[in-house]
Amino acid sequence: MAASPQLASASPPTSTASKKVVVFGATGQQGSIVVKELLKYQDKFSVIPFVRSQEKMKEIFGNETTKFSAVAQGNILQSSSLEKIFDGVDAVIICVGVPAFPNPAWENGSNTPEKVDYIGVQNIADALPPSVKQVILLSSVGVQRRSSFPFSFLNLFGVLDAVSKGEEAMKATCREKGIPVTIVRPGRLNDTLPPKAQRGMPVLARGDLIIGETSREDVAEAMVKCLEIPSARGITFEIVSGKDASKVASDAAWKGAFDAISTCGTELLSLEFSSVNVDALERLLVQWATTLTFSADLFPPLPAPIRADTLKDGERGVAITALGVDVGGRIEEVGQLRFTIEDVDGTYYLKVRRAGDYSPSINGGFGWAGGWGGKEMLGEKQILGQLGKALSKKIKNAVA
Prior knowledge:
alpha/beta, nine-stranded mixed sheet
């Protein structure tokens, strides 16, 4: 028989204006650190841990359990456990998960990645009421690179497949309910990295390109910052721990990092439409970008080969990435322009932004770890000129 939800009062919130936050996976390795990070700010957040075992919760948090505004007990694999726990809740943080390889934590097949990272996450998504204002979901780097080493090895038993399906399920369900979802993808979690003061500010990126190790402490801080920084709402990003103590992880640094990856750098162009068929405009952009290198009108030829990709993670539009070859003969990305269709208070805009310098990131991998909105991309002026010509010829097909 499915367990009924239990919501027990602990102590009252310290402030009636604080955000009420439910944390799933609250007694896990990552979730427990998120809970402790939230408890540092009792004037801002009222914490409700969702746990399977209150005994384990008491072992982990001890006297700190008196700081919880309530405790929710249940199992995310039992939908009835998720009823009536979201009344008055502002935000939900989800840190559920199990080891990638068969392990006692799999509980003889009843607690596998497929069940926890996909079905459990889907159950949470289904139970969320539209009144919830924000969801923050823990994921992993590599979900978009599951066929490439080392992620193909990590995915031998389907953990990244399950995490990817969980991401998509949460985004799709919350999209219907109007709830913004922030997805946090850390690198390999490592609790033995140097202390925070030596690590400095973590590296944030988008596109599942970087590789590296991440402290659970940095992940917890990032997830809590997502509750306060507007530009962190509704985005998917990767995080790896830094290696530069001079770059202090201040509030301003966190805001600057999220502002950078959410807007993707320097805005070069903004076109306003009084009305527009978004699907048609996106198709036009994708067709134009994918045929750009073969255009007979493009003279002189672009100084670097390019790749066109349709944007994902809730963005509408296309990215054009300039490619180069590093000293080791590896293909690397040396710049990017992002063409996004955005709804700003009911008015649609086509915005073009320069994503910035592409530079080596952590452990020799490549990713957007350099400065966003940096130098002019190779061929940038030619590409923007071609966009103007394409729009002048075909914009009637995109405007309703």
